[in-house]
Amino acid sequence: MFDTKQLERGADIRGHYPGEVNEELAWFIGRALVEFLRRQKKHDQPRVLVARDGRVSSFALYSAMCEGISAKGGTPVPVGLCSTDGLTWATGMNFADAVAGAMITASHNPKSDNGIKMIYAAAKDHVETISIRKYLANLVQEEWKNTQVEAAKAGHLAFAPSGALDVVVKFVDWACDPRFAPNLGQFTQKVVIDPGNGMGTLYLKRLQQHVSAARVDSIFDQVDGSFPNRPSNPGLPGAMKELSKQVRKRKAAFGAAFDGDADRLFVVDENGEFVPGDFLLAALARRFLASRQADAEQQTPSIVFAATCSWTVVQTIRANHGRAVISKVGQDSIRASMLSQRAIFGGESSAHFNYRDSFYQDAGLITLMVFWQELYERNMAASDLIKELDPWARSEEVNIRIESNDWRAISEKAMQALQEQYQAQATEQECYVSTLDGMSAYFPHDANVTTVDDLFKPIPESNGTACEVHPAYTPDWWFNVRRSNNEPLLRLNVECRKRKDLDKRLKKLIKEVIDLCESAGDCKARVD
């Protein structure tokens, strides 16, 4: 038996193994995937690339997924160990005539978890996520009800991986293409890479061949699904401590850490200081705008960024003659927003970065190459590259935990009360309130920007996922609060143009949110 709540998730399956995610679920998901591709995409005998990360439970789930696909009449094409961005790229390229891909991974979740991500080749230039809730939940229920046989017990691999595909090597070659790093043959710096015992390990040998004049050092560079050295999420406090230490010790130009399935990239500068994801996003946006201003498709290229990103991103896009497009948080929204605008680049503060020239996918390795290229072209230290952006003062994301079994209702009431409170200020023309994603408030009001729809002009073709930012308005400060879909948390981000204003704004908002939560129901709220 598997946890049917997994079918309520949005983009992917992810949970504890084997209680929430197990071989039975993988088998049924494989069957449902084939049925989806038949009904919705008109592929009678679809070929599906199947890959896995190095987690202890991934092999069994991988085998069960292949068997489920085969049992329904599809053809699984086993890839073996692979990164998520490598599999996504291979799906976009229709490797082995595959029309879809399935990755067994829990991404950056704890080692006790596992999951499944699925994509399909929607067109020649982009891939799309196969949403569990939107596309597969009902099909899994149908399969569960109508199938009279039990899911096969995994433990052996019925389908041997195809070495001829060599997805990882070919993806590294793609990421090292001149379109992303035209001068990589002239890179001479030393860098330190931390795959964290995850799939980024698979890149190292081939990457060093491409940057033969440089030196690629590495730590935690053996695939080990028990993650013995650090969490699979490099963004957790202290997770990149050793990387920072080694960058300083080895006098490297920068350090880079991949998450467990290697689709996200985190960076530390030459001093071992963490580079926030949205500041890295701004630096990469500048790189793309500088290199693509003569883009034949757009006179003013668009850059898409998530609603929680720093205003540093907006000011950088403007300074480099781009069009700033703000999007809902989440990879589905970022990709949809980028596709609707043919945006050349996009991303989130969570270290997901997306590339139009690679099927609109998020890709940690491509990010590494673009950042390295930017350092080479500007011939400056990583810390100076970020300082040059004139970054705003911002809080880290603050999680406020609601300790109650009724946390969903409480968080909804608290958010409604918060919105009403600041909407009253917006009515008095003190600020703007946006509900694009959660609730954001921007101070002060500007007489030249009448309404929030003037500040963030909705883009009709984005189906509500994105808005164009007014080309002239800049706030003094702003904040965003969002509800977590799966945890009893409200997530708070605060940013100020002046550093001296940040602490008092943050403390005031934390108290407001906690008070509203505790007024909304019987609970205790606290900073997590």
Give a short summary of the structure.
The protein is of the alpha+beta class and 528 residues long. 34% of the residues lie in helices and 22% in strands. It has a seven-stranded mixed sheet, with helices on both faces. Strands 17, 18, 19, 20, 23, 24 and 25 form a seven-stranded antiparallel sheet that branches.
Structural class: alpha+beta
Query: How many angstroms separate the termini?
Result: 33 Å
Number of domains: 4
The radius of gyration computed from the alpha-carbon positions, rounded to a whole number of angstroms, is 23 Å
| Record field, number of beta strands | 25
By CATH, the topology of the largest domain is Alpha-D-Glucose-1,6-Bisphosphate, Chain A, domain 3
CATH architecture heading of the largest domain:
3-Layer(aba) Sandwich
Spatial ordering of strands, largest sheet: 16-15-14-12-13-22-21
Per DSSP, the total helix count is 15
Q: Quick one: CATH superfamily of the largest domain?
A: Alpha-D-Glucose-1,6-Bisphosphate, subunit A, domain 3
Overall mean pLDDT stands at 94
Strand content: 15-25%
**What percentage of residues falls in helices of 4 or more residues?**
25-40%
Silhouette: globular
Q: What is the C-level CATH assignment of the largest domain?
A: Alpha Beta
Q: Give the low-pLDDT segments.
A: 150-156
Biggest sheet layout: 7 strands, mixed
